[in-house]
Specification:
heterodimer, A: mainly beta, six-stranded mixed sheet, 12 strands, globular, B: 113 residues, seven-stranded mixed sheet, 0% helix
């Protein structure tokens, strides 16, 4: 069975500092991987996705993530945090070739300190 | 505008009183899904539907029903709500043959007293 693990339910960074949100996955077949962001009182929106093309994926708002098969990781990074980045971030996995069963991680709340 | 809509956005009800949360998408997506979001647990899939009249259980289907009579609509039914179903619910849709990106509705916050 597939699973997604997000290390750290809460992460705090200073404005301008590097953002690193960790995601590790487990799956029996090659996966699609996603990062979603949820702002307060809103639904989820897609930040970026990995679909087996380039391993370094660039998303919206300056975020990027690197797929590392050997480490089964898909960590999300941003070089310089902005106050508007404060939100909850979810890593998600979809098995290729299967039905549309998406597995989400438990989420990481990012706090940006001025 | 491409979107997924849910109604109601907020609902307070009592134990045992049947309710329906509606979900509609205007993107002609084949796949639709319901999730519940609880603190510390992330999003857990309740039910999903691959197409009209095709539905299946997700990870936490107990106490819920769904139907998919039309491609655009995927209502979530709680026949006899209980307090442990107090949660934030999201509907999502996607096109399996495309980017596989899920488009989420704005959420329905349900409180069962």
């Amino acid at each position: 069975a597939q699973s997604v693990t997000q290390l750290g339910s809460h992460v705090s960074v200073s404005e301008g500092a590097l953002v690193l949100l960790r995601c590790n996955y487990s799956s029996s077949v090659p996966p699609y991987l996603f990062w979603y962001v949820q702002y307060p009182n809103q639904g989820l929106q897609l930040l970026l996705k990995y679909t087996s093309a380039a391993t370094l994926v660039k998303g919206i708002n300056g975020f990027e993530a690197e797929f590392k098969k050997s480490e089964t990781s898909f960590h999300l990074t941003k070089p310089s945090a902005h106050m508007s980045d404060a939100a909850e971030y979810f890593c998600a996995l979809l098995l290729k070739g299967g039905y549309q069963k998406v597995t989400f991680g438990t989420g990481t709340k990012l706090q940006v300190i001025p | 505008e491409a979107q997924v809509t849910q109604n109601p956005r907020y609902l307070i009800t009592v134990t045992g009183k049947k309710l329906t949360v509606t979900c509609s998408q205007n993107m002609n997506h084949e796949y639709m899904s319901w999730y519940r979001q609880d603190p510390g647990l992330g999003l857990r899939q309740i039910y999903y539907s691959m197409n009209v009249e095709v539905t299946d259980k997700g990870d936490v289907p107990e106490g819920y029903k769904v139907s998919r009579k039309e491609k655009r609509n995927f209502p979530l039914i709680l026949e006899s709500p209980s307090p442990n179903q107090t949660s934030l619910y999201f509907c999502a849709s996607s096109e399996p043959r495309g980017s596989n990106e899920q488009f989420f509705g704005p959420g329905t916050r349900l409180t069962v007293l």
